[in-house]
Design goal:
The chain is an alpha/beta fold and 433 residues long. It folds into 2 domains: 2-162, Alpha-Beta Plaits, CATH 3.30.70.560; 173-402, TIM Barrel (Alpha-Beta Barrel). Helices cover 38% and strands 18% of the residues. It is built from 15 helices and 16 strands. An 8-stranded parallel barrel has the order 9-10-11-12-13-14-15-16, surrounded by 7 helices. Strands 1, 2, 3, 4, 5 and 8 form a 6-stranded antiparallel β-sheet that branches. A two-stranded antiparallel sheet has the order 6-7. The protein starts with a strand and ends with a helix. The structure holds 3-methyl-2-oxobutanoic acid.
């Protein structure tokens, strides 16, 4: 095993998600033994208007030789959208460098170890000193912390920006998938709800919900957008991380948002970001037309949930939320969609806004479980947006969603009670004064 110091940087797109995705990829090469905080840093040797970087350093224990690790880093960079050819030091979604590989000293065409400039860069030395302050690198006589203290550089101070969280979701993922997979054949109805935050997720998990979906409906019920179309991958990753902290038992699925899975390659890089954020599986909307995406994800070991019928991400094109499967042709197309997703390896299919009889037929036709929403009772499971179930979003609720609570009413009551109390203090205060 060799201890590799790896520097991570990003100054293009959703920088933090890129670092998280890279962390997930690096974890496949061995064991990640230490991860520094993420710093926001000024670009060095870049154009004057170059965007700020996020930088971090991690240590990886791997059986692979340096050349193989280097090759994997280039693969990861390509997977995260870094073109092979680009102008020197132009903004990039991800930059991965080997800083050191144990005691190895190496100088080949493409790889010099230790990295020849690491001791001149605050954006490398600071995070490295956070995780390995006493490390003396081959060819140096003083430890990393001293290199940092003695550094004479005009880089501005680094700002601590975030933490890179190793994927807690990996632990127990196989068990959660196996428990879920056994439910349909055991005839156990599958209870599913959505969550976008830690307390909701934890309450659902503690109360026996089988599948928790970080649905892009959070765009409306958490973020206040008019529909799901505006939700970004970064927002989904952020909420997926929050939900992950509250879920240990249920299967946790995260939605791939609008236009993040137009091609199989794009679906893969988007899904990797959600998986790294802690999802057990991802969900995408579409049937036969999304089979290449589903296959690409399955080949990469990413479990996929399909979603057919009324597709919320198409609401603008369709001019509203319309029930599906009303004609024999439409019903046959839905059954064909479901069969194609099932054959491609989907672990479940959401049937939304669909004639109940068609949903029942789909459920009989496929091996994987169906999860209905506004699709009648004859599905293997049912899902609701939790805000609709508990009455937390009083401005809109779909007709099929029965509210079983009045969270909005209770908030209003509590606010009035508190408000009256505060005003009462003030009146009392001025009276006594
Ligand atoms: O985003 C969501 O909440 C969903 C459910 C309605 C299935 O996709």
């Amino acid at each position: 095993m060799t201890a590799y110091g790896i520097a991570l940087g990003s100054n293009l797109g959703d920088r933090l998600s890129h670092l998280h995705a890279a962390l997930g990829g690096l974890a496949q090469l061995g064991t990640v033994t230490a991860v520094s905080p993420v710093y926001q840093t000024a670009p060095v040797d870049c154009a004057e208007d170059a965007p700020l970087f996020l930088n971090a350093v991690l240590e990886l224990s791997s059986p692979l030789p340096p050349e193989a690790v280097m090759e994997k880093l280039r693969e990861l960079e390509r997977g995260l959208g870094r073109p092979e050819r680009r102008p020197w030091n132009s903004p990039r979604p991800i930059d991965l460098d080997i800083l050191y590989a144990g005691d190895t000293v190496l100088e080949t065409g493409g790889l010099t170890l230790p990295h020849p400039r690491l001791h001149q860069r605050r954006f490398v030395l600071q995070p490295l000193a956070d995780i390995r302050p006493r490390l003396v690198l081959p060819g140096f006589t003083v430890p990393v912390r001293r290199l940092l203290d003695d550094l004479d550089s005009n880089e501005p101070p680094l700002t601590r920006f975030a933490k890179l969280e190793p994927t807690a979701g990996l632990v127990g993922r196989d068990d959660r998938l196996a428990t879920f997979a056994a439910m349909k054949s055991a005839g156990r109805p599958i209870v599913c709800l959505t969550a976008g935050d830690y307390p909701t997720a934890r309450l659902l998990d503690e109360n026996g919900v089988d599948l928790i979906l970080v649905g892009d409906s959070l765009g409306m019920v958490v973020l206040g957008y008019p529909d799901t179309v505006e939700v970004t991958l970064a927002e989904m990753a952020h909420h997926t991380r929050a939900v992950r902290r509250g879920v240990s038992r249920a299967l946790m699925v995260a939605d791939l948002p609008f236009e993040t899975y137009l091609t199989p390659a794009q679906a893969l890089s988007s899904a990797q970001i959600l998986m790294q954020a802690g999802a057990d599986a991802v969900k995408l909307e579409g049937g036969v037309n999304k089979v290449p995406q589903v296959r690409a994800l399955r080949e990469a070991g990413i479990p996929v949930v399909g979603h057919i019928g009324m597709l919320p991400q198409q609401v603008r094109d369709e001019g509203g939320y319309k029930k599906k499967g009303k004609t024999p042709d439409a019903a046959a197309a839905l059954i064909a969609d479901a069969a194609a997703l099932d054959d491609a390896g989907a672990i479940a299919i959401v049937l939304e806004g669909m004639v109940a009889q068609v949903a029942a037929e789909v459920t009989k036709a496929v091996k994987c479980p169906t999860i209905g929403i506004g699709a009648g009772p004859d599905c293997d499971g049912q899902i609701l947006v939790t805000a609709d179930l508990v009455g937390a979003f009083p401005w809109f609720r779909p007709p099929f969603a029965q509210a079983r609570g009045d969270v909005a009413g209770q908030i209003r009551q509590a606010v009035h009670a508190f408000s009256e109390e505060v005003k009462g203090f003030r009146v009392q205060g001025s009276g006594n004064g």
